[in-house]
Design a protein that fits this description.
This protein is α+β, with helices and mostly antiparallel strands and 444 residues long. Helices cover 17% and strands 25% of the residues. It is built from 10 helices and 26 strands. The longest helix has 15 residues, at 97-111.
Length: 444
């Protein structure tokens, strides 16, 4: 079984019978079996060394710099080996999908449980519990899309009941430029922002801590090879410029947003923090979980020609199950496990990642290795699939009741939000994205 897109071919690395000599990777509930092999950047605590590129395998990290130093990948091209010894993934991303696929194959061979091949005698693994996970790349630019028609419609109904979906939505992938400097790795606390907000009963705005702090469940897309300024990217070549996907929580202060967003859109209500998961799952790893693009209704317009590809329509979607979990400060104190707030699928996005990237570059905008594109909030049509509290609580009018009797309209100080994502399909090994988590701290 193969898909049409060159970079989504299935190969031996997807074989569900493969096992690893790293025992934890063989657990059925592991996010990081040998069929996944996502990339990240880590630092070994207390050793004074610089950050390193690693690959997640079970509860361990394969140290690529050590592998290169020990000659385990001597057969790989020199530029590829050099990129593996960097402190960020940008150089590796810039090489393109074929060298990364070559590296992925070599890592798969190294980590396989094979009676004819002994595990490396040298210590090339670092326990995740002994490592600090960093941002995987130097992110020069960050763009946030609005690709879920269900999210756009639900939010539109709250503010424009008679005209929830603006007429451009079905023609153009809507987006805004976010703030790259405030993107932080999973685990870093998020401080409640302050800003201008205007309560409904007030005649003038006030400057105060946000009261309507929200999360947004999104999928992030890291650019691999970039494009020259002035040079668009054709839809059928778009995925050749994508390194892989991660989870994104684009925190939002809804009360600040409601006051400031007109007429130019998101600003301080969005740029105070964006949390991303530390592991980037490559498109090659996701090949078994491709699906058709979202099926538009007969009344919807077809994408304009530059955004339309038969190949992308056949296999441009991804069957990624996405979840949001919440643990309050009281729940943590009482030893209560997090509660799931929502579950949805990335397959229901109105625009594919190829369409988003192609549109981004269609005016000649130059994308660079390590740039981050986010999907916008992922929501589906069914109840309980909404990817933010703004939708789940109907702008705070319908409270969520938690196990200990606590209620939430929006986030309270001490709340921890945990995003999770995974792919599973009969005949293939389940793979995951790990977690994207953060605890809300009081305003400064």
């Amino acid at each position: 079984m193969t898909f049409s897109l060159k970079q989504t071919h299935l190969n031996e690395t997807h074989d569900p019978s493969l096992k690893s000599w790293v025992e934890s990777a063989n657990s059925s509930d592991s996010d990081f079996p040998i069929q996944n092999l996502p990339f990240g950047v880590f630092h070994k605590g207390g050793n004074g060394e610089s950050a390193r590129i690693g690959i997640a395998i079970g509860d361990q990290i394969l140290d690529l710099k050590n592998c290169i130093k020990l000659g385990l990948f001597d057969h790989l091209p020199e530029p590829l080996k050099d990129a593996c010894t960097a402190t960020r993934l940008n150089s590796l991303m810039a090489l393109g999908s074929e060298p990364v696929s070559l590296l992925r194959s070599a890592v798969s061979q190294l980590l396989r449980l094979d009676v004819e091949q002994s595990p490396p005698e040298a210590d090339v693994l670092v326990a995740m519990t002994d490592a600090e996970l960093r941002l995987p790349a130097e992110i020069g630019d960050y763009t946030d899309f609005y690709a879920s028609i269900f999210h756009a419609t639900n939010v539109g109904k709250l503010f424009r009941p008679d005209n929830p979906l603006l007429p451009n939505y079905k023609y153009v992938p809507i987006a805004y430029h976010g703030r790259a400097s405030s993107i932080v790795p999973s685990g870093m606390p998020i401080r409640r922002p302050q800003g201008q907000r205007k309560p409904p009963d007030a005649s003038i705005p006030e400057f105060a801590p946000a009261r309507m702090l929200d999360y947004e469940l999104e999928v992030g897309c890291f650019v691999g090879t970039g494009n020259a300024i002035g040079q668009p990217i054709a839809i059928d070549q778009a995925e050749q410029h994508i390194f892989g996907l991660c989870l994104v929580n684009d925190w939002s202060a809804r009360d600040l947003q409601a006051w400031e967003y007109q007429p130019l859109g998101p600003f301080l209500a969005k740029n105070f923090a964006t949390t991303i998961s530390p592991w980037i799952v490559t498109l090659e790893a996701l090949a078994p979980f491709r699906c058709p693009a979202f099926q538009r209704s007969n009344d919807d317009p077809q994408p304009l020609p530059y955004l339309h590809s038969e190949t992308d329509q056949r296999s441009g979607g991804f069957e990624i199950t996405l979840e949001v979990w919440l643990r309050t400060e009281q729940m943590q104190s009482d030893g209560v496990a997090p509660v799931r707030l929502s579950q949805g699928s990335f397959s229901q996005m109105y625009w594919t990642i190829a369409q988003m990237l192609t549109h981004h570059a269609s005016n000649g905008c130059n994308l660079r290795s390590g740039d981050l594109l986010a999907s916008g909030t992922v929501s589906n049509a069914n109840p309980g699939s909404q990817g933010c509290l703004l939708e789940l609580t109907q702008r705070g009018t319908q409270l969520i009741t938690l196990p200990a009797g606590e209620t939430r309209a929006f986030l309270a100080d001490g709340d921890e939000i945990i995003l999770r994502g995974f792919c599973q399909r009969e005949g293939y090994t389940r793979i995951g994205f790990g977690e994207c988590r953060a605890i809300v701290q009081p305003s400064a």
